[in-house]
Structures are given as structure tokens and as C-alpha cells.
Amino acid sequence: MSHSRKFTLLFLALLGSQVFAQKFYFSLGMGPGIGIEKDLHQEFYDFEIVGDDEIRTSKPMSFGKGYNAHLRFGYRLKSKIDLALEASFFKGGKTTFTKDYWIDWPPVRGGNSSIDLYGNSFSLNPSITFRPFTSKFAPYFRIGPNISFVTTWEEFNSMDFQPNSNSSFLKRKNYGGLGIGFIADLGVAYQLNESWGLYSEIRINSFKNRPGQSTIIEFTQNGKDELSSLTTDEKEEIYSNYISRPSRADGRYRSPDDPMEFLKFDQPFSSIQLLIGISYYL
Amino acid sequence: MIKGTKCKSLCVAILLVSVSLNAQKFYSRFSLGYSRPIASQSIDGLDYYYFSNYLLGSENRDDDFAEGINVSFGEGLHGNMGLGWYWTESLSLELNFSYSYSRKFKSEQIIPGDQEIRFDLRGKMFSMNPAVVFNSQIAESNFSYYSRMGLIVGISTSIVQNENYVGYFPVKGESNVSFESKGSIPIGFNGALGIKWKLPKLALFAELDFRALSYSPKNRSMTSAENNGESVIEAFSTRQKEIEFVEVHDRASFALGTGDTPRKVLERSYSFSSIGLNIGVQYDLF
To answer: Nearest to residue A271, comparing CAs of A207, A186, A179, A187?
Structure first.
């Protein structure tokens, strides 16, 4: 090999090492979140029968209360701009509603239900990070789209008081939806040394989930498993933006062997999160 | 004498330098933009409101359909103006005011030969946006990029709703009813990423603007009602014209009918979230 070729290869190797040096980094973090952009979700509110009166209490909710854990892969495009791709998992906490229900005529209080709603999401967030300062303690701002794959659950615990004392439990799983929204982070990073750093950020995550389908996955009455007694149309639902030949204004019934089809609904999932983590610079 | 003159000149020079350093600390900015919706929602169903498209009972049923409509009142036009102050070369504080005017959302519900119902909705918001801005010059150029993060405080927000009925409901003929929902001060979050082209005394900018905001009105009032071209709003009672959105209500306050108190309905929220492109100018002031 000629000297000039060796020199060229050495130069390229050195250049490459400098280009790669501290250009890439990994971050691992976690933190709690509370729901924002809460809404009265479908027909979920507290309903109490008091004598012959009904009391309705609004309970706006967001599924976005819980805990976030994330892994982020970043590339320092310029000294003050990073590109990053983050994968995160959000485990949601439960929101509980209570509903009494009437029976008979004249109506009397026949029983009540406790309903728990909760959900988890797996998200991908490509983003751009802006760092105006290059000091050891450096604030930054990140913004980017949020693509989330969400599963939510509804658990109904019902107790009849009249005419007989009966109990039932039903659990429905909503899935197959895609939530598309946006994240904005305001954070501060502390460079420990050349390779390691710490960060803390406040994240606004704004999106709503729209399930594609749902299935009842558990149904018991008085402790006995009755899931197999449900027909397909009682057990499964699919959700669409457009329904042809509907049997009613918001949906379509085909047969006991087909899922019911309803218009899509949305689930509020926005949150504000406080995240801390550690970064490793390659 | 020479020393005194030199001293005076030096003092004047220092004063001028400090004035010019402090000069151009304030700036004003104006922009126009259009936003697309994020976190849009279906507002179909729930107590008093249905907002979807459907056609039921066509001659051969093949034309029947049901269609959902997604709404975020952040989708539409907006104008912004504000004042900024450079705390340091890289950090500035801004106070912006913006007016958002959403596009009109429409629904149509038809039962051929029986009833046609058409709704349209539009949201408007005048808001205040205090924010922190990070600025960074792109080396050896007149371009700089910036990011902004702050709050949105809705000073005045309303949702206007128009309803058109043709058929037998609520009365025979054609009826038009309008409502306006307002009250309460929504608070949300705003983030933006932009690029600025600095010219003498003025800069042009373009930015991607993200808003996370929902609005929960306190009341809804009927603003007009006509049947077959004649105003009939006086025929409606307060219970029929006014809705108060509350956290808790009993059966009597929720029931329809006549009465001289507003009907009470559980409060709910409407999305005003959006992502948009703004283009504007920034003037250095003093």
C-alpha cells in the first residue's frame, strides 16, 4: 500500500472517530404523570340514587395518569441541536366511577356498580431537541410527534340488592387503536463527565386514543364464569369512522355471530409528566 | 483641562456604549398562521348533544350510513401579536396575544321523508401566552433558530352552534336555532420551534406552533330561534334557552321542560389543541 493511501486511510479513520465521538447518546429515564385535558368520558360519571332522586356528579378524566419509562437514542446534529428517537411505556392508573341503577315501576334502587378505567400505552417519539446553552447545567427544549399504541380496560363490578342479591363482574378490553399527538419537553441536563449526564424534564403529552375494537375478556355471575354464554355480538365490538347500512344512528347489528359495529369514540390520554434520567454519550 | 476633557469623553463613550447595549432589548412580533388539529374528539352523544353524520331509512337502504366527526376547535386560522424582551442574548421573555378562529364543523342527520337536522359549530378564542424563548444564532449568518415554551390562558372563549331542522321536529316546517357556549378560563400549554431571518431593524420568522388546550364552558345560551322565517325566541322559557354546565346536579335541575331557571347539565370539555405554521415579522423597538 502506498504512503499516500495509508495516510488517506488514517486521516479518514481519525475524521470518522471525531465525527462519531460524543455524537450519539442513549438515555434511560422514568417518572410519574398526571392527566390533563380531562373530559367527561362517554357515559362515565358518578350516578347516585338518593330516595327517589338521582344525583349525577361529573368526574372528568384522562387515562394519562400513571408512570412513564423510556429509552431514548439521540444524535447531536450540531452543538445546539439533537435529533432523538424515544420508545416509552406508560402504565396508567385507575379511575373509578360508581353508578346506582333502578329496577321496577315505580322505580327503586336495585343495585350499584363500581367501574374502573385504566390503560397502558407504548409510544414512539421522534423529536428535535434545542439546546441554546453549552454549559454544564444546560436547559433544553424538545418537541416532536407522538405515535402511541394503546390498550385500555373497563372493569364493572355490579351488585344487585333487589329482588335478589346477585353479583357480577365484567372486564372489557379496548385495543387496536392508534393515538397520534405531540410531545413538548422542557428540561435541564447536567453533564457529569465526558460520558455521563443526568437530566430532568417536564413533558406535555397531548393525544387521544381511538380504539379499533373491544372484547369482553371476563364475565362472572355470582362467582361463576359465564363468558361462554355470551354471543359474539354481546361480547365483541368493532369501531369504525364510517358504517354502511347501519341499524341505528351510531351503529350496526348484523347477527348474534358478528361483532356489533359502532362509530369510533376517543379516550383522553393527555398528561403532564415529570421525568428524570441518565444519559450515556458514545 | 486635557485630563478633564478626556475623562468627560470617556464617560460619554461609556454612557453611549451602555445605552446601545441596552438599546433594542424590546421587540414586537406579529404573525398569522393556520393550524391542524391534534387530540381531536368525537362530541357525539352525551345528554343534549349529537354531532355525527347519518342517513337512515333510504329507499333501498344501500344509501344508509353513519359517520363520525372529529372536532378540535384549534383547527383554523389564528393571528398573534406580542412583546418580547431579551434578558440575555440567548434568552428572552415574551407576552403574546392571539386570536383563534376555528373552521366550521358540520354534521347532517337525515331520515328521508321525515326529518333533516343540520348542525354547525365554530370555536373562537382570544388568549394570552406568556413564554420563555431560547435563541441561538447560526454562525456567520443572519439566521437564528429559537424555541418557545409557555402557557396559554384563554381570556375570552366561545363556541357558536347553529342548528337547522326541516321536518316535524321541533315543530313543523323549517326551524333555525343558534346557541353560544362560554364562560370559564381555559389554561393550556404552548411550544414552538422556529427560524428567524434577521434584517436591519426587522426580522422575518416561521415557526411550528404546538398547543395543548381544552375548554370547558360554564353556560350555553340560545341567541336566536326562528320557525318558518319568524322569530320565536320569546316563546322559549329560561329552562329551554339556558344551560348551566355543572359538576353535580339532581334530576329536577336536569329535566327538560319549561321553567325560569337554567337547565343543569354535567360539564364537558372541548379540544382546542393544534399544531400549526405561523409566519410573521419581528421589530426591534428600543
So the answer is: A207
